[in-house]
Amino acid sequence: DRERMALPRLARLHQELGDRTQAAAHYNQMLLQGSQQRGVWHSKTGSGLSNEAVEALRFLMVFYREEGNLAQCEAFASQLLDTSGPEKDEAKAMLRDLRTSSDGPSANLLTGLGRE
User: In whole angstroms, what is the distance from residue 58 CA to residue 8 CA?
Assistant: First the structure.
């Protein structure tokens, strides 16, 4: 139970220190442990995911978008659709944005590369 509390704290600490990669690693580890131990990251009232899980999913959604890993971004955004509150709306907006940007898949990435 102590490790369950430590991982979100470590992730937040690394996030505050500007080490987003390490924060992402802790959040990923936290969610992985939760999936192995059924129900660990669900709220005690049974009304959905815990605040820590929502925080982790939101952070990872944004992190992977910024890193260019759109498949991972989409996976975390999709999981946030099962929540209520502003995170669900953020996830919907992110998924819309991903779909819009995939309309011209390589065009944005290749602009200016190797062309003179």
Answer: 13
User: Model confidence at 103, in pLDDT bands (50, 70, 90)?
Assistant: low
Look at residues 68, 74, 67 and name the one whose alpha carbon lies nearest to residue 93: 74
The mean pLDDT of the chain is 82
Chain center to CA of 81: 12
Answer whether 60's CB lies under 8 Å from 27's CB.
yes
Q: Which residue(s) pair with 49 in the sheet?
A: 42
For tokens 């062309």, what's the residue? 115
The answer to whether the CB of 48 falls within 8 A of the CB of 4 is: no
Burial (0-12, 13-18, 19+ Cβ within 10 Å), 22: middle
Q: What is the pTM of this model?
A: 0.79
- Sign of the torsion angle spanned by Cα atoms 64, 109, 71, 50: positive
Measuring CA to CA, how many Å separate 103 from each of 13, 57, 58, 61, 97? Answer: 37, 25, 24, 20, 10
Q: Please check whether residue 72 is in contact with residue 31, taking contact to mean a CB–CB distance below 8 angstroms.
A: no
